[in-house]
Amino acid sequence: MFTGIIESVGNVAKARKQGSDMMLSINVGKMDMSDVKLGDSIAVNGVCLTVTGFDSSQFSADVSVESLARTSLADLQMGTRVNLEKAVTPTTRLGGHMVSGHVDGLATIVSVEQDGRAWQYWLQTPPELSRYIAEKGSVTIDGISLTVNAVERDQFRLTIIPHTRDETTLKDLNVGDHVNLEVDLVARYLERLMTFGGANAQSSQGDRVSMELLARSGFLK
């Protein structure tokens, strides 16, 4: 589990195909590796990867066929900058939102415009993920926890403050670039509960999740 608060911007030291998989070596930049162990999880551009080797300045991880097909990791090249975050501990501040590191798909940058000191990013979502994006809800873009400030059909807008842009790879993005998108965990589980509570539920009516129940519980306006 992660928070979406980026600890460091690193870069790819090596990206080597191994059959249909890939082995990555990542220079970690300013990230502290003193508490890292073999088998720990580190998010690379929002993708949860398992540490298979490390030292004080870099770590290695294997990337599966599934991750290569669903994320932008297949496009990484030597020198590419990446957002890094170690998995949370019981004492970690939850500064962003609950992030699993399991990417749902790729979003596309539609426009990038400066607005005062901030920047406005419009992104296009895959049709099957648009229903999970809500105004003032949370999304994860390349591992960064961000707030959705507007939604129009299958596009949404992010307002990026200077600190976030400077301390992540957001300033590297251009129109047409693809980014890893993870939707809010709560939205996915609510949909599953509503589906299960409708056509497939075996439980009593009082146990089912309904629109009325969600409204009473404060999930709907």
Automatic annotation (TrEMBL):
A GO BP entry: riboflavin biosynthetic process
GO molecular function: riboflavin synthase activity
Gene3D superfamilies, per database record: 2.40.30.20
Lumazine-binding repeat copies, ranges: 1-97, 98-194
Enzyme class (EC, first level): transferase
Keyword NAD: no
Catalytic activity as recorded in UniProt: 2 6,7-dimethyl-8-(1-D-ribityl)lumazine + H(+) = 5-amino-6-(D-ribitylamino)uracil + riboflavin
EC number: 2.5.1.9
Span of domain Lumazine-binding: 1-97, 98-194
Keyword annotations: Repeat, Riboflavin biosynthesis, Transferase
Pathway: Cofactor biosynthesis; riboflavin biosynthesis; riboflavin from 2-hydroxy-3-oxobutyl phosphate and 5-amino-6-(D-ribitylamino)uracil: step 2/2
Listed InterPro entries: ATP_synth_asu-like_sf (IPR023366), Lumazine-bd (IPR001783), Lumazine-bd_dom (IPR026017), Riboflavin_synthase-like_b-brl (IPR017938)
Family matches, as PROSITE patterns: LUMAZINE_BIND (PS51177)
Pfam families linked: Lum_binding (PF00677)
SUBUNIT field: Homotrimer.
Biological role stated in the UniProt entry: Catalyzes the dismutation of two molecules of 6,7-dimethyl-8-ribityllumazine, resulting in the formation of riboflavin and 5-amino-6-(D-ribitylamino)uracil.
Stored PANTHER family: RIBOFLAVIN SYNTHASE (PTHR21098:SF12), RIBOFLAVIN SYNTHASE ALPHA CHAIN (PTHR21098)
NCBIfam families: PRK09289.1, PRK13020.1, ribE
Name of this chain's protein: Riboflavin synthase
